Amino acid sequence: MAIVSPTVIAEQVVESILAQKLAPGERLGEQALATHFGVSRTMVREALMQLQARGFVEVQSKRGWFVVEPSVEEARDAFSARRIVESGILNHAGKPLQKVIRRLREHIADEQRAIDGADAATRAFLLADFHVCLAEQMGHRLLSDMLRDLTARTTLAATLFQSKHEATQSCAEHGEIVAALEAGNNALARTLMLRHIGNVEEALEVDQANAQPDASARLRTSLAPVARPRAAR
Question: Is the pLDDT score of 214 beyond 70?
C-alpha cells in the first residue's frame, strides 16, 4: 500500500482536476479528505497549503477550502504560458528517437480507446496528460512538472467556461503533432501545437461561467485514482 503524504494528496487532487472530476468552486472539506485518505487533518491541511501555493485552491474565511475559479484573464494567462513552454520545447528539440515517437503514439492510442469507451474522466485526463508526456519524452523533467500545473489550470478554465472543443478533435490534433515530429519537421510540429492550444482556448465560452455547485458528497468519487492504461509490453 502506497504511503500517503501531503504531496501524494496534493498530486491526487491535481490529477482529479486534470480528469475534470473536481470542478472549479468545489469545496474540499478537511475532514472529508482526511477520512478519504485515512490521514490526519493536519496532513490534509499541509496538502491544501501546497495546492494553495500552486494556485489550485483557496481558503475562504469561516467556509473552508475551495477549488479556485479562474477569471477570464487568469485563463488567458495560463494558455499564453502554455504556448511559450510547449512551443519552446518543440523549437529546441532535435529529431526524436523512435522510442519517443512510439511512446507518444501509444499515448494517443490510449486516448482513442478512452474516447471510444465510456470513461469520461480517463478521456479527459489522457488528453491533458499528452502535453506532459510530450515534455517528459523530450527529456524536460522540470518543464513537465510546470506544464502539468499549467495544463491543470487550463483544464479548470475549460470546465468553468464550458469548452466546446471535442475530444476527437484534440486526439486528432495530437496525432498530427506526433506525425510532424516523426517526419523530423519540428517547425511544423510547433505550428500545429500553437494551433492546437489556440483551438482549445477559442472553444471556451468565456461569456458565461457555469461552474458546478458545491457538492461535498462527490468528493470520494472525484478523488478516486484515474484508471491508467497499462504500458504496452
Answer: no
Q: What is the pLDDT of residues 53-105, one digit of tens each?
A: 999 999 998 899 999 999 999 999 999 999 999 999 998 766 667 889 999 99
Question: Grid coordinates representing 71?
Answer: 477569471
- CA neighbor of 4 nearest in space, from 38, 41, 42, 52: 38
Pairing mode, if any, of strands 27-28 and 64-67? antiparallel
Gap between the Cα atoms of 110 and 129, Å rounded: 11
Burial degree of 196 (CB within 10 A; 0-12, 13-18, 19+): buried
Task: Give the list of residues 6+ apart from residue 108 with CB closer than 8 angstroms, or none.
Answer: 130, 171, 174, 175, 178
Which of 199, 224, 200, 35 has its CA nearest to residue 122?
224
